[in-house]
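Form 12-C: Joint structure prediction
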Amino acid sequence: MSSLVGFLSLVFAIGINFYLFLSRYIFKFQKQKFNLFIRFSSLLTLLSFFSLMYAYVVSDFSNYNVFQNSHSNKPLIYKISGTWGNHEGSMLLWLCILSIYSFFFSFTKNIEDNFQKLTLIIQAFLHILFGLFIVFTSNPFLVNSILVNEGLGLNPILQDPGLAVHPPILYAGYVGYSIVFSIAIAGLFQNTDDEWLYVAKKWSLISWTFLTGGIALGSYWAYYELGWGGWWFWDPVENISLMPWIAGLALVHSLMMVRGEQAIKKWIVFLSILCFSLSVFGTFLVRSGILTSVHSFAADASRGIFILLIFFIVTGFGFLVFLLKEPKKSNTLNLLFINKVSALVINNILMIIATLTILLGTIYPIIIEVLYNKRISVGGPYFNSTVIPIMIPGFLLMSIAPILSWQTNKINNSKKYVLAFTILSVLVILQSYFLNFNTWGFVGLLLGFWIILASIIAIFSSYKIKINIKFFKIINPHVAHIGVGIAIIGITCSSVFQNELNFNLNEGDKFNVNGKTVLFEKIETTNEINFQSLRGKFLFDIEKNQSKEIEAGKNYYPVSKMITSEAGILHQWNKDIYFILGDQKNNEWFVKVLINPFVSFIWLGVIIMVYSGLIAVSRR
Amino acid sequence: MNRIFVLTPLIVLLIICIFSLVYLLSGKDPNKPPSALLNKDVPIFESSSLYNANDIIKTKDIKNKKTLINFFASWCSPCKIEHPLFFEIRKKYPELYLLGFNHKDPTSDAKKYLNDDGNPYDFVGVDSDGLIALEFGVFGLPETYLINEDGKIIFKFMGPITMDILKNEIEPLL
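Section 2 - Result
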């Protein structure tokens, strides 16, 4: 029953959008009526999504999708997250978020009616494309042809609270760029005033903030669930999310800088189209199963071709409009040796090069397989040795960009900065010299600390310190950059100075980690609702009274016959001690201990970035 | 200069789409990676029969005959989908030796499954701990391997085989 409701409301929603799309040419609507229709179709899409969710919650196995991906023994939260833990459901979530964005956009005030209408018509067009994709190739409302009373289970690796919220937030980021895309295209068509730039700014900030949060949640999940000791693996799906993130960063900065320069405006339109294209391309790569990764679901060629077609239509349409309707009149940029505009241009170029480098690495395996019929994989070494060096000058520039002037080459208080930079360099050199020297470590630490220091100097020397909301809004760009600096320190330390220890242990053995004695207490197996757990219990620092308990082990999911590893992590502010329980051989357990310094800084940095994203959204 | 800037994205788009399309249309599928085992000797294995623990099959027992090895389990629903096809193969190619490996399955469940849906295999080997699957490099169930008379793996497929795959890829090799 709920499947029927869901399917019908989905089809009806697509129908309304089709009607609205035609309204541009055939039926003319008043603004009020038009907006009502948009909202109605959004609610229908939402209803469709919740019907599917309901089917999951009540374990309605007459729905084929529920049967394939759920199980009545699952805890409620994973029944709910099961809704988007599979291909069909996640596409419906995609469409649902698109609708939500249209819904809220229809309430935007202070923009010209025709412009708003055109934007929403483009949104309706996107809704139709993805809606038809769902109906014809990925219908989550199919009826199960066999009568069953139990389901086949959700992928156990996805049974994790972090991952339950990761896809919706990430999608909110990806799909948010649809509205930016629609705004930019509508802006090109109407080509009137610059008001649309301010509208676009808000939405691109929202998307970017969601995307940042979504990526961070995903990598936090990978950190404690995959049990590989790292938090970023240059997995194709991670790369796919990083591309619109970097392009989106360029877009946000361009939007903040724009002062009516036509060249930048053109660039903004380009970035807006690019961001959404990359999002759709990412959807294509993941959903077609063309790349293998932890995120792949069952592949289906017809699905792949359909979504490739959508990608081609959307991106082709976007760039074609860009080609034909490009903003014409051009007043020159105020480029100086070093002012705000030139810093922005250089940073944008660097970000685009980084995006293209990632793009190349991601699709290179496809190209090679088509040409030479060989399967290769491009991984960490390529990305680390290309993307990072490209980003470094960008980070360096970023530290001073907010204090540069618009009109001149002059930097206020330049002596202070030179002095601070010199002192900092000496300190970092000394630190590197006395501890363990590593070129990347040195560069990373210097950059991270420099960004933080420069931002703090800028805050103290440029503004009067007050504690009120307005002040925090003013210093927000600096705060965002401090977040980046903190994250860079975390990234550098945790990847360059990671320490790995391996042990073969019996229960009751004591061993030494980082100067502290650890006791391998015992192995425990328990039966949970939907899995069996095997845990090694460790007592960290037993010489002290308050020794800490760490549990590392594995879960075995009988329904899907899968084993997931559960790392045991002892979080300290300056390091994570990361325990992985391996296999048992000759009565000895293999235990790997990783010491990851300053990982918490990465998450702290991200939280600051998300915070300042939110502040920026609230700022007019 | 300006023209180039606005044309480049379209050109890049076209290139990406063409490559992706060729990739998709050529039937390349990450579910079917060029196997490291392809054209290599079949791994050494030893397994007892599902119905009789004393009945053992070893690698050398399948020498000198074409063998189709299929990894399956009662809990694997795609296996259920491809299952009827093995009866067709059975009928069409009586010479072909059908070897099924029952993967990580309680014996009783496996027997019930083959009882309900029929048993197309010449021999059902038990792989309760999944070690044989590990030797074969099985990613997920079902997986099917074709071994020629010299004991070399000449075909591998991940996921349920279909009529198309049977007609276009397996039959030419038989």
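Section 3 - Comments
The longest strand of chain B covers residues 97-103. Strands of chain B lie at 46-48, 56-58, 67-72, 97-103, 123-127, 143-147, 153-158.
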